Amino acid sequence: MEYPSKLIEDAVNEVSKLPGIGKKTALRLVLHLLKRDEEQTESLAQSLTAMRTQVKYCQKCHNLSDHDLCGICASTKRDQTLICVVEDTRDVLAIENTAQYKGLYHVLGGIISPVEGIGPSDLQIDSLVNRLRGDEGEQVREIILAISPTMEGDTTAFYLQKKLKPFNLKISTIARGIPIGGDLEYADEVTLGRSILSRIAYD
């Protein structure tokens, strides 16, 4: 593709490196930015630079944060007896959006995947163990493993279960089953089987 400007070409190349954005979409976005007021474009650039240089990881749960402690860990209104273990920040956002969970989190930063060369030492597992050994651990009563039900996710959950066993805590996983509004005939066998085994009393 021929570009009228090398600067536009460079901008398109950078924007197209973002996930899910091809060259055509990148060009459309770049041309849109050119049409906007210069102050708006500068504001966007400043926001991206500030995000990249100032966002940090919470020292306790490893969620993304503006401060050393994220808002969830710093809140006195959260249930200190619960820690929900998740793969990454997107999972925290998804669970928070349900407004059903009021405990704390621990972000692993990934899951065990031998194929990709990711082992337990590459994840924030030791820091979870250290949390439970510290003063905070005296309050914790339950660990919820909210990890995707894939082979790698199950491997990670199994490893965590063994690692956390000495603490004599209640260890639970999120329920897996048929989604609301779903038809049984379209559910895969594994999901349907787990739904039968994890059945609950009908009140």
TrEMBL record:
Similarity-based family: Belongs to the RecR family.
Xref: Gene3D superfamilies: 3.30.60.80, 3.40.1360.10, 6.10.250.240, RecR Domain 1
Residue stretches making up the Toprim domain: 81-179
Family annotation (SMART domains): TOPRIM
Biological process, per Gene Ontology: DNA recombination; DNA repair
Identification of the protein by name: Recombination protein RecR
Alphabetized NCBIfam families for the sequence: recR (TIGR00615)
UniProt KW RNA-binding keyword: no
Underlying gene: recR
Lineage of producing organism: Bacteria, Pseudomonadati, Bacteroidota, Cytophagia, Cytophagales
Entry keyword set: DNA damage, DNA recombination, DNA repair, Metal-binding, Zinc, Zinc-finger
GO molecular function per UniProt: DNA binding; zinc ion binding
Alphabetical list of CDD domains matching this protein: TOPRIM_recR
